[in-house]
Design a protein that fits this description.
Length: 583
């Protein structure tokens, strides 16, 4: 029986198929049986239990987000929003070397402090939301597998909890690992890979700190330690190495050379965060030359790029804003917005806040007065604002202080006004430099950080931003829809070693998006209090997603979640399928 004569579970008919390969879109149908794509072509002649009319829409593979921090949310929630609201059907956890396994009971407070500072997840959220019904990394994977959720998750073994598991307080004090420590870490890494980890992750970034300002356990871990741990990847012949380097504070030559040495020793692919400076000379050619040289030697290195400015969203109800470290603001800091507002409207308090200098605090909170790189952030959200719309430029044009202008912006919409604080990727106040970078064959889109920085960042919406801004709306050079879908699906799937998804082809996993590109709209972020313990988070929704399908089941329709939860834990890297039916 041919594919066209088979009865399918779901057929998506009449859409413009953008298959993830980068090739030209074409009109046709997609048929799914169970969790597998069984037909992609001009017309599916068979019957179907369910059909979706995709006329006027694009049909794409499900998107793969390789840089998230849903390590906690995947435990306490059955929806991984906002990622699943933006077409993501697979999310990779454990990035930046932080997470919740392996972890002994005695070390729960240390890991909570770590995630509270590094990833801006409130301690009460983790204390109330995590049952800690695991200790080892294999047990954590089992705990994830036992819980329903909307999309698939794959996990990297995080370096910080691994180090604390083996070294205890010595890890928190950032002591050098002994030979016995290294042997134990390598053994546990191999155990994690055998249980289903898709790789290993670490961070060397200076501003990755606990809420108290302490450096993370992995900061300064030497190359010898990283080579020892990734030796488990070499031995297993599987896994990717992910790292956040300390390049903003150290030289690219030193930091990237270390990552390349680890990748070369292990023989495994590696990916690292590449960010652009906002001003000054080109800062990205030097690391890219190093990547080119490494690849010429057969070392697989993937610079990872966010396709819009890297930064934070500031607001009274959020983690940071220009006055968050002012002494007079401290009595308000932990109050709900509705209790802050009467006091913020007091002219005397306003005058004190405008006059005070911020006190020392968390490094990210100390980056909230970079006036010429901060912009009013309204609805619709503007991610490439004009330079003359910055807080600094507005203040100069109006003859006011930037503090005065920023205060007014934050008070808009009954105190719900927001400021976009662009810390990087906005060279000369333009996104032009990103086009050449994302088009490189050896770069990959990522850094959405879903599940982290709950009250400071909402970059998990980047798939919708790419489809709206880069494909449809930008004034100036744009990207094609075929390019963007490949960047959102096939390329990240390949980097993560998840080769069974990311393409619309017979035999591949039945993860699909149906999107009305003409109607697609990215809404402004809003604050929700739906985390455990009433914790707050930024959420960002979109209009125009007709349907998102995971493993052949519709998890979202017309922008709303359905009641099915087919998401599973992806254990280990996945082989590309061999199609057994015509495509």
């Amino acid at each position: 029986m041919t594919a066209q004569a088979q009865a399918a579970d779901l057929v998506i008919r009449g859409g413009t198929i953008v298959d993830g390969s980068g090739g030209e879109p074409f009109n046709g149908d997609v048929a799914l049986c169970g969790d597998t794509i069984t037909f992609v072509g001009a017309h599916y002649a068979g019957t179907a239990r369910e059909e979706i009319d995709a006329t006027g829409c694009i049909v794409t593979p499900g998107f793969v987000d390789i840089h998230t921090h849903y390590d906690g949310q995947a435990v306490w929630s059955d929806t991984l929003s906002p990622s699943s609201s933006h077409g993501v059907t697979t999310a990779v956890l454990g990035n930046c070397g932080v997470g919740f396994a392996p972890c002994r009971k005695a070390d729960h407070p240390a890991l909570i402090r770590l995630m509270e500072g590094v990833e801006d997840i409130p301690g009460v959220v983790m204390a109330e939301g995590l049952p800690w019904d695991w200790e080892t990394f294999p047990q954590y994977l089992d705990a994830l597998a036992a819980r329903p959720r909307d999309i698939d998750v794959a996990c990297l073994l995080p370096h910080s909890p691994l180090r604390v598991w083996v070294m205890g307080e010595r890890a928190i004090a950032r002591e050098a690992a002994t030979d016995d420590d290294l042997a134990q870490m390598r053994e546990i890494a191999r155990e994690a890979l055998d249980a289903g980890a898709i790789g290993f992750a670490t961070s060397r970034l200076n501003i990755h700190r606990t809420k108290a300002g302490e450096l993370i356990p992995t900061y300064g871990a030497d190359t010898h330690e990283l080579i020892a741990i990734t030796g488990a990847l070499a031995e297993a012949g599987t896994g990717v190495f992910q790292a956040v380097l300390d390049a903003p504070f150290e030289t690219w030559e030193d930091e990237l050379a270390r990552l390349i040495a680890v990748a070369e020793a292990s023989g495994r692919p590696a990916t690292f965060t590449l960010a652009l400076a906002n001003s000054g000379p080109n800062t990205w050619d030097a690391p890219l030359r190093m990547v080119d040289e490494a690849r010429a030697r057969g070392v697989e290195i993937w610079p990872q790029i966010l396709p819009r400015p890297i930064g934070m969203i500031s607001g009274w109800a959020l983690s940071t804003h220009p006055f968050c470290l002012c002494p007079s603001y401290q009595p308000l800091a932990n109050l709900p917005l509705e209790e802050q507002l009467p006091q913020l409207r007091d002219p005397a308090l306003r005058a004190r806040l405008l006059a005070e200098m911020p006190q020392p605090g968390h490094p990210l909170a100390m980056l909230t007065r970079n006036w010429d790189w901060m912009f009013p952030f309204g609805d619709p959200p503007q991610y490439e604002p004009a330079a003359d719309h910055s807080i600094g430029a507005l203040a100069r044009a109006q003859g006011r202080s930037p503090e005065d202008v920023a205060f007014d912006v934050l008070m808009e919409r009954d105190g719900n006004g927001m400021i976009l604080n662009t810390l990087g990727n906005f060279h000369e106040a333009r996104l032009d430099a990103l086009i050449g970078l994302v088009r490189r064959a050896d770069t990959v889109i990522g850094l959405g950080d879903g599940g982290a920085h709950y009250a400071a960042i909402c970059d998990a919406s980047y798939p919708t931003f790419m489809l709206t801004y880069w494909v449809r709306d930008r004034v100036g050079e744009r990207l094609s829809v075929a390019e963007v879908v490949q960047m959102l699906a096939a390329k990240p799937a390949r980097v993560a070693g998840l080769d069974d998804r990311g393409l619309l082809r017979a035999g591949y996993k039945a993860d699909v998006n149906v999107i009305d590109l003409a109607a697609l709209k990215l809404h402004a972020p809003v604050v929700r209090h739906d985390l455990p313990g009433g914790g707050r988070r930024l959420d960002q929704t979109a209009t125009g997603y007709v349907a998102t399908v995971v493993s052949g089941q519709v998890i979202r329709q017309a922008g709303q979640p359905t009641d099915v939860r087919p998401g599973r834990v992806v254990r280990g890297m996945q082989q590309a399928p061999v199609a057994t039916v015509p495509a």
